[in-house]
């Protein structure tokens, strides 16, 4: 409950006790209840005369009766009314504290100003220490604002599914049976935590795969919170009893890409490199719960037991010909190149975790071998021995595609050049001699497995080949396939945008992919901005724009390949330019294009702001960066939610990474994460 007067609002909570908000000067304090305006929405009487939209009605419409005149409620605001001349500015002081008014000290006096300056100095010092010295002022600004947005997007989230389903008469275990409603299978769930939100402005919610990417940026400034967020999704109150990780509120049972293991390994490795010691208990606990999730994937999303996966939505909205979460209009099933690639990467991540844990407990060697075997079965299923029409690799095009398997048993590739076919590049892991050398039993088990099943390594990167500094490569693609896919990835008339990698090839701008089913046409066309397909609603678009998270994974993959091939493997970048680059240089080039979305160019304009002249030119706005959900595939303008810092905030990691890292350092080091200089001092 809140109440107040004279510029002070008192908040009283049964567990937290009393706190006070002090507002400088004499603002008008507004109070209302956190109740829906049912009269406005549905024509029913309100339970209280003071409802959620009271502040709008008071401030905009001038309705004094909309707010509680007694100065009480569950929502409160301090309303300042000021008149400013041209070029003038005003600031107001506000402070939330447990210090009661009668305790004497002035809460907004000299002590307030001193504390505020001290906190500013501390923040400046912290960011200075984690920011590479060779960054420009503008690059440092973008990095800091991206991280600040990540920290700001934390919010308390409460959702008791058991109670919610019972109130909506949809609980499968309570009362008379009714047809199952949304999230009916998740009645075990209670969310009661502070969570990193993708979209805090409009509506607080979380998404599991968004959250995994959030942690890669959050670990730069708060590794404990990053670990806690990863652990949260694996808690018994979140993880489904069958092993599924919840997707997002409007359908917890939807299928998000399995990137949780990758993020867990990333955060663990980053902390280990900074401190010299990894959090083994965090890794062990996460590994065992991820085993449940991996088993769910194998049991639920590989129905034919062929190591090819039909994950459904997988987060890539609108990218395909059909709605992959619904029954296909053709009947049959869609074997997904992205779903299968995600599982190959998941297997690699679990292998790496098991091998790390085997340093502390030899029993994990068996699990490390198990996941190498999983990886080999899955990756070999994408391109079996021989030239087969029902496999994902297309030898003619040099690209991976989904496979449409019809009820009569026939199958054909769905030849859409999209991120779906690029994701197999991301299923790559480099193993150093130091990682595997002390585990003879593990190595012998893998050797015998390959000896028994030579077909599993026939069309992937040869495991027996030794790369730079004795490293071995686990990869879905060998060098020949890698080069062929990179020809399209680095072609500016296909995937390579001036601002990163497009989700769909520009090839489909002039050549849409069309298929006719039961007299109805289904097609995919390159659209650099908003999609004209309502397949997943109007708020998502993967038919052309640049998305930060999958770009991050592609850059990570290129760095892995570089650690194995070194400077010997060079490709044209851009394709057809005659300019040869190592894979490290290619990764840096793509990261630079992504970063330039936010930087002011030679013309003084930031691509992210597009044609918004106020944001481009106004000195009060032009340096306040917006981190949009995704970006125009041709000009880099921000699209989607302008406030969705979320996974776009990972650009901070790219700026920091390539500010510190050079190719020689990467080849010397055991992994792709450079030590963040002076991080411990900053903390």
Q: Could you explain how this protein is built, in words?
A:
- 37% of the residues lie in helices and 14% in strands.
- It is an alpha+beta fold.
- Among the domains are: 2-85 and 93-105, no CATH class; 304-489, no CATH class.
- Strands 5-1-2-3-7 form a 5-stranded antiparallel sheet, with no helix packed on it. A 3-stranded antiparallel sheet has the order 10-13-14. A two-stranded antiparallel sheet has the order 4-6.
- Strand 21 and strand 22 (580-582) form a beta hairpin.
- Helix 4 crosses helix 21, helix 9 (280-300) packs antiparallel against helix 10 and helix 11 (364-382) runs parallel beside helix 14 (440-452).
- The radius of gyration is 27 Å and the shape is globular.
Overall mean pLDDT stands at 92
Radius of gyration, in Å, reads: 27 Å
Distance between the termini: 36 Å
How is the largest sheet built, in terms of strand order?
5-1-2-3-7
Low-pLDDT stretches? 670-683
What's the helix and strand layout?
Blueprint (H helix, E strand, L loop, with lengths): L1 E4 L2 E6 L3 E7 L4 E5 L5 H5 L11 H6 L12 E2 L1 E5 L14 E4 L12 H21 L6 H16 L1 E7 H7 L22 E7 L11 H11 L4 H10 L27 H16 L4 H21 L32 E3 L1 H22 L5 H19 L10 E2 L4 E2 L1 E4 L5 E4 L4 H4 L5 E4 L1 H4 L3 H13 L19 E4 L3 H11 L6 E2 L2 E2 L5 H4 L2 E5 L2 E5 L23 H18 L4 E3 L7 E3 H13 L17 H5 L12 E2 L6 E2 L5 H4 L2 H10 L2 H6 L10 H4 L1
Antiparallel strand pairs: 1-2, 1-5, 2-3, 3-7, 4-6, 8-9, 10-13, 11-12, 13-14, 15-16, 17-18, 19-20, 21-22, 23-24
Helix pairs in contact: 4-21, 6-7, 6-8, 7-8, 8-9, 8-10, 9-10, 10-11, 11-14, 17-18, 18-21
């Amino acid at each position: 409950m809140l109440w107040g007067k004279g510029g002070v609002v008192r908040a009283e909570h049964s567990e937290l006790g009393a706190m006070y908000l002090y507002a400088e000067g004499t603002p008008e304090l507004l109070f209302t209840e956190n109740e829906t305006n049912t009269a406005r929405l549905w024509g029913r009487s309100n339970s209280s005369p003071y409802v959620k939209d009271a502040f709008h009605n008071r401030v905009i419409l001038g309705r004094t009766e909309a707010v509680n005149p007694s100065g009480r409620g569950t929502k409160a605001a301090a309303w300042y009314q000021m008149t400013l001349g041209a070029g003038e500015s005003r600031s107001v002081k506000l402070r939330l504290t447990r210090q009661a008014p009668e305790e004497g000290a002035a809460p907004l006096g000299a002590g307030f100003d001193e504390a505020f300056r001290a906190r500013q100095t501390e923040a400046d010092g912290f960011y200075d220490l984690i920011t590479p010295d060779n960054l420009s002022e503008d690059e440092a600004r973008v990095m800091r604002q991206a991280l600040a947005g990540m920290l700001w997007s934390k919010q308390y989230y409460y959702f008791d599914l058991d109670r919610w389903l019972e109130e909506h008469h949809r609980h499968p275990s309570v009362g008379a049976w009714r047809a199952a409603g949304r999230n009916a299978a998740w009645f075990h769930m209670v969310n009661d935590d502070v969570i990193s939100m993708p979209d805090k402005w409009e509506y607080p919610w979380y998404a599991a795969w968004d959250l995994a990417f959030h942690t890669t940026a959050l670990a730069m400034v708060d590794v404990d919170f990053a670990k806690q967020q990863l652990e949260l999704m694996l808690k018994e109150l979140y993880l489904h009893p069958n092993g599924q990780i919840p997707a997002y509120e409007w359908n917890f049972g939807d299928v998000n890409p399995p990137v949780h293991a990758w993020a867990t390994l990333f955060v663990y490795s980053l902390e280990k490199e900074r401190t010299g010691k990894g959090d083994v208990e965090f890794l062990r606990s996460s590994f065992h719960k991820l085993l449940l999730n991996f088993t769910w994937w194998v049991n639920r999303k590989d129905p034919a037991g062929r190591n090819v996966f039909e994950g459904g939505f997988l987060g890539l909205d609108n990218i395909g010909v059909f709605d992959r979460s619904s029954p296909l209009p053709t009947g049959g099933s869609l074997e997904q190149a992205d779903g299968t690639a995600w599982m190959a990467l998941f297997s690699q991540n679990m292998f790496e975790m098991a091998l790390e844990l085997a340093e502390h407990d030899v029993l994990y060697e068996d699990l490390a071998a198990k996941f190498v075997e999983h990886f080999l079965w899955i990756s070999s299923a994408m391109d079996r021995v021989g030239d087969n029409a029902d496999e994902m690799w297309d030898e003619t095009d040099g690209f991976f595609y989904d496979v449409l398997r019809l009820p009569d048993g026939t199958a054909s590739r769905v030849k859409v050049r999209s991120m779906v076919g690029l994701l197999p590049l991301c299923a790559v892991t480099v193993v150093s001699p130091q990682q595997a050398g002390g585990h003879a039993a593990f190595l012998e088990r893998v050797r015998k497995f390959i000896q028994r099943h030579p077909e599993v390594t026939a069309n992937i990167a040869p495991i027996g080949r030794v790369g730079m500094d004795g490293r071995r490569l686990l990869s879905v693609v060998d060098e020949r396939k890698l080069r062929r896919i990179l020809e399209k990835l680095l072609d500016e008339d296909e995937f390579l945008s001036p601002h990163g990698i497009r989700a769909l090839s520009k090839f489909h701008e002039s050549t849409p992919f069309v298929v006719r089913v039961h007299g109805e046409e289904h097609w995919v066309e390159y659209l650099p901005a908003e999609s004209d397909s309502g397949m997943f609603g109007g708020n998502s678009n993967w038919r052309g724009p640049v998305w930060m998270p999958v770009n991050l994974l592609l850059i990570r993959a290129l760095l892995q390949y570089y650690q194995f091939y070194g400077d010997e493997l060079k490709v044209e970048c851009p394709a057809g330019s005659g300019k040869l680059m190592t894979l490290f240089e290619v990764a840096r080039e793509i990261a630079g294009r992504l970063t330039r979305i936010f930087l002011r160019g030679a013309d003084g304009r930031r691509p992210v702001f597009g044609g918004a002249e106020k944001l481009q030119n106004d000195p009060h706005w032009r340096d306040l960066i917006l981190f949009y959900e995704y970006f125009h595939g041709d000009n880099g303008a921000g699209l989607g939610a302008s406030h969705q810092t979320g996974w776009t905030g990972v650009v901070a990691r790219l700026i920091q990474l390539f500010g510190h890292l050079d190719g020689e350092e990467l080849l010397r080091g055991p992994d792709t994460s450079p030590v963040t200089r002076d991080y411990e001092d900053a903390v």
